[in-house]
Amino acid sequence: MIYRVLAVIGSALALAACSSSSDWMNLDALKPGPSLDTVSLESEPPGAEAKASNGQTCRTPCALALPVDAASSVTFTLNGYQPETERLEAITATGEPPRLRPNPVVVELTPAGPSAAKKPASKKPAAKPAARPKPAAAAAPAPMTAGPAQAPSPWPTSSAPRQN
Question: Which of 25, 63, 143, 160 is the most buried (most CB within 10 A)?
């Protein structure tokens, strides 16, 4: 008698669970999600905003997980520099998961215009002569014989034997 009661209660609970949601018939939950590949992004100079075609953004150097199943691109922008766009392509090899190429993405940003490139160049030579006397005075012991520069040792070093 108790088994019948438990069977009826279990059946009622199972029927109530199935009827409360129609998602049980939807098999989309069994499908795998989009395949992702983590792409490293670098720029010269660093600090550029990298924006992927799917809307993800980060500041270089950084990495983004991008879907492999769709064509994608990454646009690098930085104040004072021209934006650069790099296209990524999916590579599939037998027995390996798909991945994006190139990885890492390294972009060298170019100054925004010819005037922007000339201004820093003309300012640098004017600043260097003023800064040269200070390091030159501090670097007086620099002329040494061949060999890498090393910090002076607090212990005596052996010198070459003297010939009399």
Answer: 63
- 3-state SS class at 115: helix
User: pLDDT per position in the chain (164 positions), as tens?
Assistant: 788 888 888 777 777 666 555 555 566 666 666 788 899 999 999 999 999 998 999 999 999 998 888 778 999 999 999 999 999 998 888 888 888 888 899 999 999 876 544 444 444 444 444 444 554 444 455 555 555 555 565 666 665 555 65
How buried is residue 109: exposed, middle or buried, by Cβ count under 10 Å (0-12/13-18/19+)?
A: buried
Q: Backbone phi, then psi, for 124, in 5-degree steps?
A: -65, -45
